[in-house]
Amino acid sequence: MAIERTLAIIKPDAVGRGLAGEILSRIHAAKFQIAAIRSLRLTKAEAEGFYAVHRERPFFGELTDFMSSGKAVVMVLDAEGAIAKWRDTMGATDPAKAAPGTIRRELGTSIQYNCTHGSDAPQTAAFEIGYFFAGRDLV
Catalytic residue numbers? Predict the structure, then answer.
């Protein structure tokens, strides 16, 4: 399997609850390499741009309000099969349905407050990584 890149976000709910270190520890334990990392606070417009694919969905306003409500940590993770591997590490979107041992199962509190985001496909990863990081930012 080839080395792949994915975008990972530690969402404002997790940062606000002091869980960034725990999530970073799990990233290291899962043997991801962090190619780029930054702490930021999205503006409402930036959140809307990032989640533009969901603009017509009923949850769009709530999602973008939430994602612009506090600091987040955005990262580019490298690993063999990084996209699927990160999604497995995070667990299902709904913490109640996530597998035992996953980040969302153990740390998430609801579908919205599920601590993490990850790209779902190579094309999505390329867009999402480019949204936050210029090529020169990636090591």
Answer: 117
